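PROTOCOL LOG
Step 1. Enter all chains and additional molecules of the complex.
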Amino acid sequence: AQSVTQPDIHITVSEGASLELRCNYSYGATPYLFWYVQSPGQGLQLLLKYFSGDTLVQGIKGFEAEFKRSQSSFNLRKPSVHWSDAAEYFCAVGQAAGNKLTFGGGTRVLVKP
Amino acid sequence: DTAVSQTPKYLVTQMGNDKSIKCEQNLGHDTMYWYKQDSKKFLKIMFSYNNKELIINETVPNRFSPKSPDKAHLNLHINSLELGDSAVYFCASSQESRANTEAFFGQGTRLTVV
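Step 2. Run joint prediction.
Step 3. Record the structure below.
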């Protein structure tokens, strides 16, 4: 069965500093990978996705993620965080049948001034 | 122009009641979903419909019954509400039911059972 692990429950980062959120997945076939962001009281917004091709994908809001098959990882990065990046971030893997998304437990990002 | 809209946004009700949450998408998508987010923020799929047909049912109690009157709507009816049903319920839609299609989420409905 597929699964997604986000090892970090909370991360605190200073504004302007870099951010990296870890995601490890378990899936038997070619993974379809996503990062979503959930701001307080809001729904989920897609940041970026990986289906195939270039393993470094660019997303919205200055985020990027790198797919590493050998490490079963899909880590999210941002070079310089803004206070508005404070939110909950979810990594997910999509299942071929039915487009079922399996989510990780989420990482809460707090941004210090 | 909200792409995926859910009503109500907040729902407080007593144990044993029956309630419904409505979802509509104006994206012309074929596939719609219900996800449940528990108090620990863990998100899990409940149901998926493609062209009004149920394609995923993740061992959800029978008290939960989704209904899709047309491709643009997927409602969730919950009978005999229990305290453990308290959660945020998200509706989502995607163009197709294949894994390489992006899912768009609604704002969520926070259900509190007292």
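Step 4. Note key features.
Chain A is about 0% helix and 50% strand.
The two ends of chain A are 41 Å apart (CA to CA).
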